[in-house]
Amino acid sequence: MERLDKAALNLMQPPEFRNESSLASTLKTLLFFTALMITVPIGLYFTTKSYIFEGALGMSNRDSYFYAAIVAVVAVHVVLALFVYVAWNEGSRQWREGKQD
């Protein structure tokens, strides 16, 4: 009888917390890179347009738009590459932990 009670208690326990922490970690990573994807290219666009291309280099307004857009596109690619790198390492780490269990 005691065996059945213990088995019933084991069935009623929540699933492994490791999966929840893994999900929370993945969500935090996704939100972090989403914020980076929004702020970094826009910030770099306006910063490089105003201070570097128009201010320091003395370019015209039309030319500074073009070169600042190039900087923003490069920033988008850098953030995407960093996200892929972090996601790949996080996934391989979770796979290794699951393999050892």
Automatic annotation (TrEMBL):
The keyword Metal-binding does not apply. Keywords: Cytoplasmic vesicle, Endoplasmic reticulum, Membrane, Transmembrane, Transmembrane helix. One of its GO terms (cellular component) is endoplasmic reticulum membrane. Its main location: endoplasmic reticulum. The chain crosses the membrane at residues 21-46, 66-88. One of its GO terms (biological process) is lysosomal lumen acidification. It is found in: Endoplasmic reticulum membrane; Endoplasmic reticulum-Golgi intermediate compartment membrane; Cytoplasmic vesicle, COPII-coated vesicle membrane. It is a multi-pass membrane protein. Required for the assembly of the V0 complex of the vacuolar ATPase (V-ATPase) in the endoplasmic reticulum. Belongs to the VMA21 family. Associates with the V0 complex of the vacuolar ATPase (V-ATPase). This is Vacuolar ATPase assembly factor VMA21. It comes from Microcebus murinus (Gray mouse lemur). The lineage of its organism: Eukaryota, Metazoa, Chordata, Craniata, Vertebrata. The gene is VMA21.
